[in-house]
Amino acid sequence: MSSNNTQSRQVENSLGSSIALFVPMMILFGGALYSLSFLTLENPWPMAVCLILFAAAFWIPQTLLGRSDSAGEN
Prior knowledge:
Blueprint: H1 2-11, H2 15-35, H3 45-64
Helix pairs in contact: 2-3
């Protein structure tokens, strides 16, 4: 049982790496929300910026960093 416990500890992220990933993704997400404050009917570019930042905030951790499949590992 202790070898299984040791193996599961290797899969988990450290607090520092989790914070290092969380902060930039929240900045991207916050930037997406902030860009909507400039949205008008005459200026569609803030919505384009919002969509790009919002997609990046989810796509980067799930695809590039491989965090989407880490919940199923026990």
